[in-house]
Every structure is written in structure tokens, then in C-alpha cells.
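Consortium newsletter contribution from the modelling node. Members have asked for a concrete example of what our holo predictions look like. Here is one, prepared for the adenosine monophosphate complex that several groups have been discussing at recent meetings.
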Amino acid sequence: MKVQTISAIDALRQTLDQHRAAGRSIGFVPTMGFLHAGHGSLMDAAAASNDITVASIFVNPLQFGANEDLSSYPRDLENDTALAEACDVDLLFVPTVEEMYPFGPVLTSVSVDALAHRWEGSTRPTHFAGMATVVTKLLSIIGPCAAYFGEKDYQQLAIIRRFVADLSLPVDVVGCPIIRADDGLALSSRNTYLEPDQRVAAAVVNRSLRSAASLIEGGETDPEVVMAHIATIIDEEPLAELDYAAAVDPDTLEVPEQIGDHCRLLIAAKVGKPRLIDNLGVTRV
Ligand code: AMP
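And here is the predicted structure:
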């Protein structure tokens, strides 16, 4: 069926209320557009488990810092619409900035302090409050639903799970696995910024995590040793520059004294213009 594009909040609410009144379940996939197979996997998962699938495309100014790529963030609504249709999305919500923020800068903000100050938060101090505010707003517009998010943005997913629980939002948060290119690079809209040589070099980001995972599986329990191991591998690639790497508790995102049976490896590194993030779960059996 052809995807229906809606840009007004009221019209979307009315349509979804009618579906819910008819007993249909709603699956929701929020995105910033320039869709790729990673987004496609979320839309497929939503369509497989719900009667109606809604995806949103909104490049949210609140979550970009002053020196970030808001104005140059890649956009391609025609291609996005085709991909959404191929993934059986029923409704595509594409609001303008004015529709979302009619009063200009918001006075109300959602922050999840303890989870947001480290890792991505230390380089991008306003990012997570901007993200949490817009996701809360989108979930309020959509209403009761199952909402699908990628593990690609692992810290973001942890923050969303927490504010949905803290604020008792009527939403079932579903985390979905990372979709990668053949060389391991996690798909991202920002990969389009990579020059050909940088694109080849970018594979080091995931390679360093896989190597660190083997180290842990082989018995290493010291998070500092694991971090240094990742840093050495990134250092060997002249086009890559490490921002942070860490082995953290999968729930609190804090570095444990010793790595236990489960941990999450987190990394951010610059390769040319884009700053790439990735993560990997490690379970010791
Ligand atoms: P974005 O458009 O980058 O804001 O991403 C929208 C959603 O797609 C978020 O929940 C992301 O975590 C998810 N996503 C982005 N890239 C991937 C990927 N490679 N694999 C799985 N999910 C992804």
C-alpha cells in the first residue's frame, strides 16, 4: 500500500486515534531521514509486529550543537518515501520545524542526567536533552505504541528506556540490532560525508571493537587494558582519531572496576569530517 505523508500534528493524531479505536496496534520509528538499511530494519520490525507502522522524519535542531552539521545534514525525502514504502510503512510524519516548535525555542526540556553526562554527552553537551525532548514530544503526538530504536545509538537507547520508564509514557521501547556494511562499519546517514579513502579507513572502528571483544572473551577483565587495546588499533590508522573508547556496564554505562560476564564496548572516533560511533555487546560464557 502507498505510504501516506502527513505534516500536521493534529491530522496525524486524528488518524492514529481512529486506528486505535478500531483496535489496531501502532508501531513507531522516529528518524532524521536520509534513510538506509539500518532504518529499514526498524521499519521492518515495526511492520512485522503491528497493524499500522508510522515513521517520522524530522531533523531536530534541538539536538545539534552550535558547531554541528544541522544545515548540511543530508536530506532526500523522495528516496526516504520510496524506502518507507518498500518497508510497508503506512504513515510518514514529516513535520516542519515551525509545526514542531511553533513558539520558537522550547522552554521545556527532558534531561536524564546520570546517563547523559558521559561518552557522547561529554563531547555533545546539549545533544541528549535535545534528543530526549523531541522523542518525548513525538511519543506524545503518536500516543500508545511500540517504538523502535537502533542499538547503533546505544547511549541514546539507554536514555530513552529510562525517561519512558521515569515518565510512565505508554510506550513499549524495542531495541533493534545494528545493521553494518560488509566490512563492519555501522550504517549511518553521516557515512555519506566520508571520502573514499576515509570510507576504507572507517572499518577500523568496528575492527577495534571486535578485537577488544576477543581479548575479553579470552579472559581480560581490566577495562583500562581493553581501552588501551582499542586506542592502539585506532592509532595505527592515520586517518582515524579516537575520541573515547570504553568497556562499560550495559545498563548504567559506567566503567566497572572489573569487567564481569556482560559488558558493552563503546567507541567514538573521527575519520575525516564525520565522527563515527559504534558499540558491541560482549558476553563471557
Ligand atoms: P537517525 O536517523 O540517525 O536519528 O536514526 C534513527 C533511528 O535509526 C535510531 O533509532 C538509530 O539508532 C537507528 N539506526 C541508525 N543507524 C542504524 C543502524 N546501522 N542499525 C540499526 N539502527 C540504526
